[in-house]
C-alpha cells in the first residue's frame, strides 16, 4: 500500500515548514530487498515455526540410521566434523520433502519478494531460492548452529559456521573474507536449491557448488543471523500452531547421508599460540584472515587517515611498545618560524 507522512513545524498558529514524504507499506510476509535495510531479512528466518521441529526430528532419524549420535547438539561436541554431520543430516531430511523450485521475481535481491514460512513450504512443497535458504537457516539456528544467508546477483543460498563465531557486523560485503574463512575451515556455504532437483545430489556437492559461486562479480552481501540476533532483530512471530502444521508431520530421513570430510576436528583455542611452525602460521592466518592489501593491519595506503610517525629505529619503538612504555608523540619543529636553516637542521638530525 502507498501512503504518505506529513511533518509540520509550527509556532502558535503559524506554520513554519511542512514536508510530505511518500512511503510504501509492505505486508508482514514481504521483505523489502537489499536496497533498503537488508538486515531485516533476518526476521524472516523463523526457527520458532512448528515445521522446523519436524525437520530436526527427521535429521535425528537420519543420524541414528547412519550409526551416529541422534542428538541435535549444535557446537557442544566442539567438533567441526560433528557440525558438518548435522548439516548433512538436515540436508537429507529436507531433501525428503520433495520441494519443487519456483522462479523468484526479477531483481528480488534488490527489490524484495514475498517469503514463504517453513510451514507454508512443507504444505505447498514449492519454494524459491530465498525460501530454501531461509528454511535451512531456520533449521540450523534451531539446531544450535550459526547460519548466514549469502546474496548474489539473482540468487541466494545458505552458509553455516563450523565453530561458534560470527562476522564483525550483520552485513558482510567482502567476499574475499568469506573465501579465506572457507580455506581455514571455519565455515561452509551450500547451494540450497539443489534439494529441488531429481535425483538430489549429496551435501558435499551442494557445498562445492556454492563455493564456486563466491566470485567478486556476482557477490552482493552475506547476512549473519547470529550478529542480527545480537542486534535484537528477532524472528517474526509465527501464526501457525503446532497442531495446525499438518504439512510438517511425518518427515522421515532416507538414505543419502554423507560422512564429514577430513576437517580439523577440534575448535581452535584462540587464547594460546601453538608451538609448531606450521600451526603458528595457521594461527596467524586465522587472526589476520585477509592477507591482501585490503587488510589495513598489513597495508596502509597513501590516502589513509593516519598519524604518520617518523622513526629512525622501528625496532627500538617496537621494544618500547612491547614493554608498555609510555610514549609522547610530538610534531616536527617549525623551522621557518624559528629562523633556523632547514638544510643544516636535517644534516644534524
Average pLDDT, rounded to a whole number, is: 86
List low-pLDDT spans. Answer: 246-250
| Anisotropy-based shape | flat
SSE run:
EEEHHEHEHEHEEEHEHEHHHHH
Number of distinct beta strands: 11
Proportion of strand residues: 15-25%
Descriptive key words:
alpha+beta, 5-stranded antiparallel beta sheet, 33% helix, 349 residues, 12 helices
Outline the secondary-structure elements.
Layout: E1 2-11, E2 14-24, E3 30-31, H1 50-65, H2 80-95, E4 100-101, H3 108-111, E5 113-114, H4 118-124, E6 126-127, H5 129-142, E7 147-152, E8 155-161, E9 171-172, H6 175-183, E10 187-190, H7 203-212, E11 219-224, H8 225-230, H9 277-288, H10 314-322, H11 335-338, H12 342-348
Parallel strand pairs: 4-6
Antiparallel strand pairs: 1-2, 3-5, 7-8, 7-11, 8-10, 9-11
Notes on the structure:
The protein is built from twelve helices and eleven strands. A five-stranded antiparallel sheet has the order 9-11-7-8-10, sandwiched between helices. A two-stranded antiparallel sheet has the order 1-2. The N and C termini lie far apart (72 Å). It is of the alpha+beta class. Mean pLDDT is 86; it is low at 246-250. The protein is flat.
Question: Can you describe this structure in just a few lines?
Answer:
Helices cover 33% and strands 15% of the residues.
Amino acid at each position: 500500500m502507498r501512503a504518505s507522512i506529513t511533518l509540520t513545524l509550527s509556532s502558535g498558529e503559524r506554520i513554519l515548514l511542512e514536508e510530505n514524504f511518500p512511503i510504501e507499506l509492505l505486508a508482514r510476509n514481504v521483505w523489502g530487498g537489499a536496497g533498503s535495510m537488508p538486515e531485516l531479512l533476518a526476521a524472516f528466518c523463523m526457527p520458532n515455526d512448528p515445521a522446523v521441529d519436524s525437520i530436526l526430528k527427521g535429521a535425528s532419524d537420519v543420524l541414528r540410521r547412519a550409526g551416529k549420535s541422534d542428538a541435535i547438539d549444535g557446537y557442544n561436541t566442539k567438533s567441526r566434523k560433528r557440525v558438518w554431520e548435522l548439516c548433512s543430516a538436515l540436508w537429507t531430511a529436507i531433501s525428503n520433502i520433495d520441494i519443487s523450485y519456483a522462479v523468484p521475481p526479477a531483481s528480488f535481491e534488490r527489490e524484495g519478494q514475498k517469503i514463504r514460512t517453513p510451514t507454508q513450504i512443507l504444505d505447498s512443497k514449492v519454494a524459491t531460492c530465498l525460501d530454501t535458504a531461509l528454511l535451512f537457516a531456520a533449521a540450523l539456528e534451531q539446531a544450535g548452529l550459526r547460519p548466514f544467508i549469502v546474496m548474489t546477483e539473482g540468487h541466494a543460498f545458505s552458509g553455516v559456521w563450523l565453530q561458534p563465531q560470527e562476522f564483525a557486523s550483520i552485513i558482510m560485503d567482502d567476499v574475499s573474507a568469506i573465501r579465506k574463512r572457507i580455506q581455514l575451515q571455519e565455515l561452509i556455504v551450500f547451494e540450497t536449491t539443489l534439494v529441488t532437483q531429481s535425483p538430489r545430489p549429496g551435501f558435499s556437492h551442494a557445498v562445492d557448488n556454492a563455493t564456486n559461486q563466491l566470485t567478486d562479480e556476482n557477490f552482493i552481501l552475506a547476512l549473519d543471523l547470529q550478529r542480527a540476533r545480537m542486534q535484537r532483530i528477532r524472528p517474526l512471530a509465527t501464526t501457525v500452531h503446532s497442531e495446525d502444521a499438518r504439512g510438517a508431520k511425518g518427515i522421515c530421513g532416507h538414505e543419502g547421508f554423507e560422512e564429514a570430510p577430513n576437517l580439523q576436528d577440534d575448535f581452535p583455542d584462540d587464547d594460546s599460540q601453538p608451538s609448531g611452525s606450521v600451526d603458528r602460521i595457521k594461527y596467524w592466518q586465522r587472526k589476520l584472515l585477509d592477507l591482501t592489501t585490503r587488510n589495513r593491519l598489513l597495508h596502509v595506503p597513501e590516502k589513509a587517515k593516519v598519524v604518520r610517525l617518523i622513526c629512525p629505529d622501528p625496532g627500538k619503538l617496537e621494544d618500547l611498545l612491547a614493554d608498555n612504555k609510555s610514549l609522547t608523540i610530538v610534531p616536527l619543529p617549525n623551522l621557518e618560524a624559528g629562523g633556523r636553516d632547514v638544510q643544516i637542521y636535517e644534516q644534524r638530525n
